[in-house]
Amino acid sequence: MSDKTVASSAESFEIGDLRITLSGVIALLKMNRPEKLNAMGSRFWGDMREALARLENDGRTRVLVITGSGDKAFSAGGDIASFGEMKTMTQRREYQANVMDTFIALENSRLPVIAAVNGYALGGGCELTLACDVVIASDRAVFGMPESALGLVPGFGVLRAPSVIGRQMTKMMVMAGERLDAHQALQCGLVQRVVVHEQLMSEARNMATKIAENSPLAHAVGKKLINRGIDRAEFDYSVEALTVLQSSEDAAEGVRAFLEKRKPQFPDPGAAS
Ligand code: CO8
């Protein structure tokens, strides 16, 4: 168990920045770092898998709902400020594998997972919604995969989004960093239901209750069949590609620009040859 588990009781526990509350057969997991828009720090990925494993094994939970703390963000994605901690290719590869393993764990979980998107779902935050089974959005939600401004691509998003929203829509989001509001996201299939902000959690709970009334075995089998289509080799290729990208001068410039709150200046690729 993580040394960041700070509190534990029959009804709720915390692992790092994740707060999990058990309510009957429904578990609510909150990403709890609102001052950084629930950005996913380096511990996030392992902590999420640990929380998931605990819920899968507790014998009671039938549905998981994931949301973000605060009014502004579900999650603004990977913690850009922490990217500089990775100095070597090995560290970058381990990091990417860690990220990918977390999305795969959610997809492979026997538990149905609902994303209740309460604000920005950007980068890894948007990818997290793609790894969930049902996405319910507040009318304030905003979706985007802006990694190309950081010299990166969303490693899981580029594999999963095309089958959800189509190739061109994925390219528009990935290349232009175009954001979608909740209704646009609904229209293209990234979201299954939009509700007024104040009703988000009650709608998510209603959906969770409906799902929980049906067969857990059928959910586990159905999920596996619906999620098929990307083989392990593609995930592994994505990890390698992202490891290389993350080592590029473009990524260094993209991260510097974010931290310095300015627009990145990417060199012409022809200039290097
Ligand atoms: N990482 C770290 N810190 C963040 C992030 C983030 N992704 N997003 C926001 N923050 C921080 C800000 O730096 C700020 O901190 P401080 O108050 O200390 O300056 C605080 O959160 C509040 O943010 P803003 O002041 O920027 O709030 P605004 O309302 O002005 O803007 C935005 C909100 C539009 C969401 C803006 O914060 C933004 O653009 N954030 C970055 C979004 C982004 O680019 N996400 C993609 C990240 S990369 C990723 O997710 C890849 C997944 C993992 C793979 C990693 C491969 C290396």
The structural class is alpha/beta
Listed once per kind, the bound small molecules are:
octanoyl-coenzyme A
Number of helices: 10
CATH architecture: Alpha-Beta Complex
Q: Using the coordinates shown, work out and report the CATH topology.
A: 2-enoyl-CoA Hydratase, Chain A, domain 1
Radius of gyration: 18 Å
Order of helices and strands: EEEEHEEHEEHEEHHEHEHHHH
Percent in helix? 40-55%
The CATH class label is Alpha Beta
- Provide the β-strand percentage band: 15-25%
Name the shape in a single word.
globular
Largest sheet: 8 strands, mixed
Terminal CA distance reads 49 Å
Number of structural units classed as domains: 1
CATH superfamily grouping: 2-enoyl-CoA Hydratase, Chain A, domain 1
- Write out the strand line-up for the largest beta sheet, numbering strands in chain order: 1-2-3-4-5-7-9-12
Overall pLDDT, averaged?
Answer: 94
User: How many distinct beta strands?
Assistant: 12
List the uncertain runs: 1-9
